[in-house]
Amino acid sequence: MGERRQPFLHRVGEAGAKIGSKPPRSKRVRLAIQLAIAILVFGFLVLTVVDQWAEIKDKGVHFHIVWLIPAFVILPIFYALNAVGWDLILRFLGYRLGAGRAQVAWGQPLLARYVPGSVLYVLGRVLLSERAGVPRRLTVASIVYEQALQATSAIIVASYFLIGHPDLEGQPLRWAVLLLIPLLIALLHPRVFGPLANRVLRAFGRDRLPEVMPLRGVIAVLAFYTLNWGVIAVGLYCVARSVSNISASDILVVGSAQAFGYLAALATVVAPAGLGVRDAAFAWAVKVATPGSSFAVASLIAIVVRGVLTVVEVLYVAVVTALGRREGWSIHTGVIHASPEEEEAVEGEAEGAALAPTSRPPN
């Protein structure tokens, strides 16, 4: 008698767990992929700026580099606070990394988001957390919670943009976004999220969640992430102000535009870390704060914002990597490099991580 065939959803789960579990081993291939993505990312926005440069000059665009000084002070704080938020999630799940190790485990693999599939990014956090005594499955569960809470906080912040955007005036459905907030909070309630997630995991042949967050933890971390959007709003306003005369009263517009871009990137799986998708969505959203609501000026701002955020990420990763190495607590999970042992470990961890949304910090 032949071997019993697995249920359909179990087979889907097994197949999904293997997708993207093996990044290209060749460093040259990885680099080529990243360069190709980068070209596609900025192609549309750069062409817009070049084609409409005359309009941009008419809108009074300027370059005041002094505004970048506060931006480079504020934006690293945003990344550091994201690591604190993840540490809070782990604490509510019953484990504690500590402030320093949370920064290293969250920040050191950050650039690995740009590897297609983002598997190395998840893997880096899993391996570093395991060295601190956190079980792998619980780390994956914390990343699932992190993604859900960040998305919910982004919806809260982006609702300001969706309701007030001139292009959406006369659309009564724009108010429906407010209904999503209590709905998502209700879904994250442990009595709802736990059984629902376990039912989905069981249908796909996966193990149950090891722990669930209490409601007070969900509310606390959600409030924390929502406030952190205010930090990046101020930082990105400084970046935008270095390019164009944007009023200080539009800080909330800049913050909600970034949240909208994050949600747009989260809804797609085409570009690693949401490259391109996030930038275009941010440009469309932030144009209402530019002189004459110019998309060309907004595209220029989006390009500068992406450049500044990339530099800030590299600096932040360098600092936390140095911290990890000083403490003898570091792994090779950069954008290009991964040790053979880590690549072997990807296969085992991909089964748990594949069912979670791609983890993308809201930069």
Structure description:
The chain has one domain (8-353). Helices cover 67% and strands 0% of the residues. The chain has helices at residues 8-18, 27-51, 53-58, 68-92, 99-107, 119-131, 136-164, 177-187, 190-203, 215-241, 251-266, 277-286, 295-326, 340-353. Helix 5 (99-107) runs antiparallel to helix 6 (119-131) and helix 6 (119-131) packs across helix 14 (340-353). The longest helix is centred in the last third of the chain and has 32 residues, at 295-326. It is globular.
List keywords for this structure.
363 residues, mainly alpha, 14 helices, 67% helix
Summarize the structure.
The protein has 363 residues and is mainly α.
Q: Would you spell out the secondary-structure blueprint of this structure?
A:
Elements: H1 8-18, H2 27-51, H3 53-58, H4 68-92, H5 99-107, H6 119-131, H7 136-164, H8 177-187, H9 190-203, H10 215-241, H11 251-266, H12 277-286, H13 295-326, H14 340-353
Helix pairs in contact: 1-14, 2-13, 4-5, 4-7, 4-10, 4-13, 5-6, 5-13, 6-7, 6-14, 7-8, 7-10, 7-11, 10-11, 11-12, 12-13
